[in-house]
């Protein structure tokens, strides 16, 4: 029952005319009454004894759209993972105190850039309407793009076009979905043939656009140019960190092998979606540099016997000796 509803009405005792003396507010009434107020009116004559009769007067207070929708919160912050089309992001909630004009529709006024959709639903838990925000079914948000945060201006409007606005910030969360890439794709290094076993030769480097990643490098192939022909070989180790080292049990010899090609793959162990390895292998070209590490040796011949006359002049050639070397011509002097 409308609280003390009779106080809002008065009746002329002579004419029986009912008048409103207080302000009526449909929203202050119990919604189950549907705006109905029932007044019990009694009419009494002046006879002796006086006789009276009673009647119930039903008054219906019609609702007027005089309230504006109000959002439950002054602002909203929502999170959504990148790369998921049509996914649910979150809800805003608003309520209109009007009893017959309380239906609310939501719309995104700005800030979406075509990436989000909002739909209105009656809150089955009671208390207004929900505006459910989803990613557009044709859109994949990309954390690696410039749009990591969207600032949406959302409007709630009732049937009478009373409206209010609220700011909704949508934060795009990173999903590990990018493939690592070798940078640079090819590395060229030069090492001297006398480097110690276990020494660092070079390093593969790769980049991953995902903020959270763990890159591991793996050997794909190793080939050497030895004695003029290219063949599979060993002698070099690729560490998971991308470092390339000379094997602890291996030494280099320029006179045997002068060039090495190592192919490697890089894998992101934190990949959540898509391929976890690089699309193309990385290549390291290792050029082995000669060092002067072989002393020349005389070629001994038993047939060499020299007789020199005591009259031989100064500077006169008397014989030739021959030496051999395994070194390049730059050292053969």
UniProtKB/TrEMBL annotation:
Pfam families linked to this entry: Cadherin
CDD domains from the UniProt entry: Cadherin_repeat
Main location: membrane
Gene3D superfamilies given in the database record: Cadherins
One GO MF term: calcium ion binding
Highest taxon above the source species: Eukaryota
Compartment list: Membrane
Ranges where the Cadherin domain occurs: 9-71, 72-182, 183-298
Keywords (A to Z) from UniProt: Calcium, Membrane, Repeat
A Gene Ontology cellular-component term: catenin complex
Cell cycle recorded as keyword: no
A Gene Ontology BP annotation from the UniProt entry: homophilic cell adhesion via plasma membrane adhesion molecules
PANTHER family recorded: CADHERIN 23, CADHERIN-23
Name of the protein described by the UniProt record: Cadherin-related family member 2
Organism for this UniProt entry: Liparis tanakae
Gene: Cdhr2_0
